[in-house]
Amino acid sequence: MAKIVQCVPNFSEGRDLDKIEKIVDPLRGKEGVKLLNYEADKDYNRVVVTVIGEPEAVKNAVVESICVASELIDMTKHEGQHSRMGATDVVPFIPIKEMSMDEAVELAKSCAKDVWEKHNVPVFLYEKAASKPERENLATVRKGQFEGMSEKLKDPNWHPDFGENKIHPTAGITAVGARMPLIAYNINLDTTNIEIANKIARCIRHSNGGFRFCKAGPVEIPERNIVQVTMNLTDYTKTSMYRVFETVRMEAKRYGVNVMGSEVVGLVPMEAIADTAAYYLGLENFDMDKILETGLME
Amino acid sequence: MAKIVQCVPNFSEGRDLDKIEKIVDPLRGKEGVKLLNYEADKDYNRVVVTVIGEPEAVKNAVVESICVASELIDMTKHEGQHSRMGATDVVPFIPIKEMSMDEAVELAKSCAKDVWEKHNVPVFLYEKAASKPERENLATVRKGQFEGMSEKLKDPNWHPDFGENKIHPTAGITAVGARMPLIAYNINLDTTNIEIANKIARCIRHSNGGFRFCKAGPVEIPERNIVQVTMNLTDYTKTSMYRVFETVRMEAKRYGVNVMGSEVVGLVPMEAIADTAAYYLGLENFDMDKILETGLME
């Protein structure tokens, strides 16, 4: 079976459609590379691109896009609501199929090396590719943002993983890493009481003693007269959708509140959905090879 | 998105591996065509081939295989336990993705036309492609088998849909049709009492008042000290896996018997699995485009 990687580069341009098209263009029409979508946000002044395909081909195409971004985006003039430190701000590689996290980490390092050697943009490795624990968290890496990076790099603890001890004058510095696919998942509660959603979120999220790979918080949906527990599941192979769902249902009972349903925001890996069906049907000896479409992707 | 069809031709050769390879060979290495597997059965003297891909390409490759089979297999010398009427016995086309049943029917008709015009093998259309109600059921169409077909074709009601009023002297006659993907699904009951499995099977199967697209029966699994309700779901879009599973659980309660789990035999379409997960999680606005891998198959 073919290895499949996903890459979700974030570029610091969300307003100039012409520039956005030029940045995205290297990801189109290449053998082994599929551009899934890109969403520009004007307030953030940022575009999030999703591309998928054969690992080496995806990496090479993304390096090309990073090159275009470093030529077109001048960070000294960039304004936007989202934290950022480079023309290409962050580049996560996500193993999707027949690929280990170690392989995704190697791909991230190879990408980082190319970005520095070919385009003179320095790189921090982050998350699973991080060279030390304090670089795992992107927010920590990016702290100081573009404007504070020249100062930050003077600290010997913050020497880039690739590149010299200074940022690119207009393209800044980029974070390249590897991580599991993330599932954005919301569960709807039949109440307007946000405090109940808050209490349930605290039961299931890692930071308060809940599941290891669950981030959660409460949200009001006033137009539907309900509240939501909104979540990011950061490793669905270890913190399952069905386990989180059933736990929320269990906790909601405590308040006499019904779970009305749930929703996936964005994309969800097939394996997470198949694992959910396998749990509820008690499927024996079930794996992805039992799914007809798996054969189509070999 | 690309249209995907599955085709499962059955050829009347299950013993001579050299001939089987020659029959299967046209399905290999063709653009847009993927040979998923083939299983020869010596007792049946029959090989069942599963191929999938772009409709026109799959049809053309299958027509080539049918040609090879009609050259290599002499039905006047064929012996086997399975009913059969032709060197290529039956050719169902199954719409898998972005394809309607009407399109699968058109593909079946186009295949049937080619088989007759290029290889002089007459064809009955069956199931969804049938030209009259009495030709929908394959067993009815095949009744009389190869040996009785010359006589059967003299009946004006059994003029082939393509071809003249006589069979090919050595390749016989072929059934070409269109149908939904079939899910072979078994549910395990924690009892050795086969009568309970039998009673539950009668509740859920169409022939006794159960679900429209469910065939079911009881099976003993002595090595595990359990019984099974064994099923074919012939249209999972209308008779869902979860609905059948929950109904079996409901009926089993009547006898104080637990449902231990279930199993899929062979392949299951992703949509059937996704629909199951969506039911149990109460997923709102969920469809196949939310699944990451769907983008890979476009």
TrEMBL record, chains A, B:
<dbReference type="Pfam" id="PF07837">
    <property type="entry name" value="FTCD_N"/>
</dbReference>
<comment type="pathway">
    <text>Amino-acid degradation; L-histidine degradation into L-glutamate; L-glutamate from N-formimidoyl-L-glutamate (transferase route): step 1/1.</text>
</comment>
<keyword id="KW-0963">Cytoplasm</keyword>
<dbReference type="InterPro" id="IPR004227">
    <property type="entry name" value="Formiminotransferase_cat"/>
</dbReference>
<protein>
    <recommendedName>
        <fullName>glutamate formimidoyltransferase</fullName>
        <ecNumber>2.1.2.5</ecNumber>
    </recommendedName>
</protein>
<dbReference type="InterPro" id="IPR037064">
    <property type="entry name" value="Formiminotransferase_N_sf"/>
</dbReference>
<keyword id="KW-0369">Histidine metabolism</keyword>
<dbReference type="GO" id="GO:0030409">
    <property type="term" value="F:glutamate formimidoyltransferase activity"/>
</dbReference>
<feature type="domain" description="Formiminotransferase C-terminal subdomain">
    <location>
        <begin position="181"/>
        <end position="295"/>
    </location>
</feature>
<dbReference type="InterPro" id="IPR012886">
    <property type="entry name" value="Formiminotransferase_N"/>
</dbReference>
<dbReference type="InterPro" id="IPR013802">
    <property type="entry name" value="Formiminotransferase_C"/>
</dbReference>
<keyword id="KW-0808">Transferase</keyword>
<dbReference type="InterPro" id="IPR022384">
    <property type="entry name" value="FormiminoTrfase_cat_dom_sf"/>
</dbReference>
<dbReference type="Pfam" id="PF02971">
    <property type="entry name" value="FTCD"/>
</dbReference>
<dbReference type="InterPro" id="IPR037070">
    <property type="entry name" value="Formiminotransferase_C_sf"/>
</dbReference>
<keyword id="KW-0290">Folate-binding</keyword>
<feature type="domain" description="Formiminotransferase N-terminal subdomain">
    <location>
        <begin position="3"/>
        <end position="180"/>
    </location>
</feature>
<dbReference type="InterPro" id="IPR051623">
    <property type="entry name" value="FTCD"/>
</dbReference>
